[in-house]
Amino acid sequence: MRDEEIGALATELSPSQACRALVHLANLRGGGDNCTVTIVRIGDLPANVPLPELPTAAPPEPMLEWSWLALGWAAAIAFALGMLLIVFQRPVAGGVFTALSAAGFVVLIRAILGRRRSQPIDESDLSRTNYWRPYRTAVIRSMQELFDDLGVIEASLSRAAREEGWSVRWSQHSQAIQAASEAKGERRFGRGVRDYCRAIDLLMTPLYAQRREAKDAAAS
After folding, report:
1. Could you tell me if 106 and 152 lie in one domain?
2. Which of 13, 135, 189, 197 could form a disulfide with 147 if both were Cys (CB 3.0 to 4.6 A apart)?
3. How far is it, in rounded angstroms, from Cα 192 to Cα 13?
4. Widest pairwise Cα distance in the chain
5. What SS3 class is residue 214?
6. Distance (Å, whole) CA 191 – CA 22
7. What's the pLDDT score for residue 129?
């Protein structure tokens, strides 16, 4: 199932109907077994439930304090002084100052990297990519296109059910197909999607039952 199809069915159907439709379509497209779907619809809080108090974000700290800036200047001066001593034939003293400056730069770089890791993430910036979030979004598919595809799937499945003699509630199935046809004439494709999903559910339910019976018979 593609994201845009999942979104369309979850939007148009109730959570329980959408779960059943998604499982049916996944199985019809090659899913073997153990298809699991969870749909959660979140609404407003009840009137008697108080709003949670969200923690206020602390103001961002400066990247580095003045003491670290002073350390950077001291390391730069020590490096320059060490180079001058080496040039003037005093390699031992020059090496000491150069080593001190290198140690100062290492401490400064570690402090900068550590501070960057601890900076809070600005979640108000919707343009940034949030890889840690457990969801993704997609534009839902056109209801008319989904209606047409479900019609093709239902017709093929209905033909197989009649040829193989599935124990389908054909009267309810005919009502669902008639309702889908009326929805198409009124161009109410969202309602037609619901009707086709109901018709597919009426076809798939006895198929699952027959497969379970055949599996149990084979096991015994």
Report:
1. no
2. 189
3. 11
4. 104
5. helix
6. 17
7. 46
Q: Is residue 93 part of a domain?
A: yes
Three-point CA angle 129, 130, 136, nearest 5°:
95
- The DSSP output letter for 40 is -
* Domain assignment present for 109: yes
Q: Report pLDDT for 181.
A: 96
What pLDDT score does 187 carry?
A: 94
Specify the length of the chain in residues: 220
Domain membership flag for residue 60: no
The closest of 98, 74, 104, 102 to 85, measured between CA atoms, is 98
pLDDT score recorded for residue 105: 78
Considering the domain boundaries, does residue 129 fall inside one?
Answer: no
Q: Give me the helix-helix angle, 189-219 and 3-12, nearest 10°.
A: 110
Side chain identity at 211, as an amino acid letter?
R
Question: Domain check: are 111 and 148 in the same one?
Answer: no
- pLDDT confidence of residue 93: 81
Give the count of beta carbons closer than 10 Å to the beta carbon of residue 141: 18
pLDDT along the chain (220 residues), means of 10: 90 92 92 81 80 62 64 81 81 82 80 61 48 68 93 95 92 96 95 96 89 81
- Residue-number span of the structural domain to which 88 is assigned: 66-117
- Rounded CA separation 10/136 (Å): 14
Q: Against a cut of 0.70, is the pTM above it?
A: no
The C-alpha angle 159, 146, 41, rounded to 5 degrees, equals 115
- Four-point Cα dihedral 114, 119, 120, 122, nearest 10: -130
